[in-house]
């Protein structure tokens, strides 16, 4: 439905948005691992929509891809999603119809699946990060799906919010341990967060617990659709202030927000003496002995010379990405838009088989590749093993990266696999695979 949000800060005018229950982000849905949930979605927009429960391993009929898994929800109509989340962790929800405009105008919300036993932290915080392209009057700019965005880095905005507001100081207390859930709900902006004076420990990626570890170079790299849970022991002095920097783009580092310590004495003298590791979720272990190998190659986009790399031999039709045209391909095939009926699967897997999936990025651009219905055990990147037993549903590939992962095809249905830079998805960087 339509609403208003204070995206531009306390001095700025309010911005017209589209939001779940009229808010940005949508309401925090807190549900329990292994307990059935029923969520009724009523469409108050003037166009079709659906809801995709990003990262949840659920029945195919509840996955929210229009035409592929359900008919779109028409204006004024409703649809009831029912599922039982098998995994505890940090997830989110967003449309999978008209997604570039609908997400770009604000439709996204956090979904937290609580562990059966409480985790030993003093506070559980959520930062839902979104970026917005605002015009001079602080309203959401039009021009969605431009050729430049479609064939290059996507619609990167000029304003970043935390939980729907321009970032203000984040109050913390000396001595406390915080579980911070980071969700990147941007259309295209990759973030790399540095917590100055602090040592965040990654405890989960994309909702799936991993071996606790400090990030490389102290930077938490968060591509669109990714989630990272960190544990931070607040060891600063009472009254001190520490910036959280986003420095993913060379020369464009900016302070996202500031950790502002209360003047109260520390909560405890020494860091909390409790394990950081989260309980593992019931993911089926890939059977390396009987794997089916499948390779997907990402192609297209603008090259260094400003020309479009050949996409499926179909180029020469004017500018790529124009009027919803293709600018990208997977294995020579471009699926554009959001999902529709009759999308032919690129590959098929028998139920229970282990798929060894190789993703090869032959483009000059970054791509966070998202798989529906499954989590992927990330095995290697450019031939080097990936440590910390990481499972992800959204895997970021730098230009020319080759990533190998594995998963058990235990969830039947037709499943989407696409880039979560939404401009790239809309312009062809999307495919479907079938589990029978």
3D structure, described in words:
The structure is a single chain. By secondary structure, this protein is mostly beta strands. It folds into three domains: 2-114, Immunoglobulin-like (Sandwich), CATH 2.60.40.420; 123-261, Sandwich (Immunoglobulin-like), CATH 2.60.40.420; 288-435, Sandwich (Immunoglobulin-like). Helix content is 4%, strand content 39%. The strands form seven sheets. Strands 20, 21, 23, 25, 26, 27 and 29 form a seven-stranded mixed β-sheet that branches. The protein starts with a strand and ends with a strand. Mean pLDDT is 93; it is low at 312-320.
Class by SSE composition = mainly beta
Uncertain runs are 312-320
Biggest sheet details: 7 strands, mixed
Task: Determine the CATH topology of the largest domain.
Answer: Immunoglobulin-like
Mean pLDDT equals 93
Helicity, as a percent range? under 10%
CATH top level assignment of the largest domain: Mainly Beta
Beta-strand fraction estimate: 35-45%
CATH architecture of the largest domain: Sandwich
Shape: globular
Taking the alpha carbons of the first and last residues, their distance comes to 37 Å
Taken together, the total number of domains comes to: 3
Provide a compact summary of the structure.
By secondary structure, the protein is mainly beta. It has helices spanning 99-104, 147-151, 422-426; strands at residues 2-5, 15-18, 29-32, 37-42, 52-54, 78-83, 89-94, 109-114, 123-132, 159-162, 170-172, 177-184, 191-195, 201-205, 208-213, 219-222, 227-233, 241-246, 254-261, 291-300, 328-330, 347-349, 354-361, 367-371, 376-381, 384-385, 391-392, 394-397, 402-408, 413-419, 430-435.
């Amino acid at each position: 439905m339509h609403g208003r949000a204070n995206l531009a800060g306390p001095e700025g005018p309010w911005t017209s948005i589209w939001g779940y229950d009229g808010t940005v982000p949508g309401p925090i849905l807190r549900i329990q691992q292994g307990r059935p949930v029923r969520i009724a979605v009523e469409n108050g927009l003037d166009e079709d929509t659906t809801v995709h429960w990003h990262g949840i391993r659920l029945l195919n009929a509840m996955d929210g891809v229009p035409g592929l898994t359900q008919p779109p929800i028409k204006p004024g109509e409703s649809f009831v999603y029912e599922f039982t989340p098998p995994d505890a962790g940090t997830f989110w929800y967003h449309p999978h119809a008209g997604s570039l405009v609908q997400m770009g105008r604000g439709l996204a919300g956090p979904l937290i699946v609580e562990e059966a036993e409480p985790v030993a932290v003093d506070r559980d915080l959520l930062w839902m990060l979104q970026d917005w392209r605002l015009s001079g009057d602080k309203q959401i700019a039009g021009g969605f799906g431009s050729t430049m965005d479609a064939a290059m880095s996507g619609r990167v905005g000029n304003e970043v919010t935390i939980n729907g507001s321009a970032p203000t100081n984040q109050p913390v207390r000396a001595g406390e341990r915080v579980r911070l859930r980071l969700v990147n709900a941007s259309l295209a902006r990759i973030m790399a967060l540095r917590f100055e004076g602090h040592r965040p420990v990654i405890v989960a990626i994309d909702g799936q617990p991993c071996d606790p570890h400090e990030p490389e170079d102290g930077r938490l790299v968060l591509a669109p659709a990714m989630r990272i849970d960190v544990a931070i022991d607040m060891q600063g002095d009472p009254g001190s202030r520490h910036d959280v920097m986003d420095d993913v783009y060379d020369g464009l580092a900016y302070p996202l927000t500031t950790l502002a310590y209360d003047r109260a004495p520390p909560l405890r003298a020494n860091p909390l003496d409790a394990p950081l590791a989260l309980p593992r979720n019931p993911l089926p272990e890939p059977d390396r002995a009987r794997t089916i190998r499948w390779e997907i190659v990402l192609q297209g986009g603008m090259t260094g010379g400003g020309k479009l790399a050949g996409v499926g031999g179909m180029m020469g039709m004017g500018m790529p990405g124009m009027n919803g045209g293709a600018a990208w391909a997977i294995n020579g095939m471009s699926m554009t838009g959001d999902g529709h009926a009759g999308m032919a699967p690129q590959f098929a897997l028998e139920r229970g088989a282990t798929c060894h999936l190789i993703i090869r990025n032959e483009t000059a651009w970054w791509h966070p590749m998202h798989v529906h219905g499954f989590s992927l055990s990330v095995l290697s990147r450019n031939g080097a093993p990936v440590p910390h037993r990481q499972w992800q549903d959204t895997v970021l590939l730098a230009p020319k990266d080759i990533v190998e992962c594995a998963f058990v095809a235990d969830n039947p249905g037709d499943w989407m696999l696409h880039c979560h830079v939404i401009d790239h998805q809309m312009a062809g960087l999307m495919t479907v695979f079938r589990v029978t």
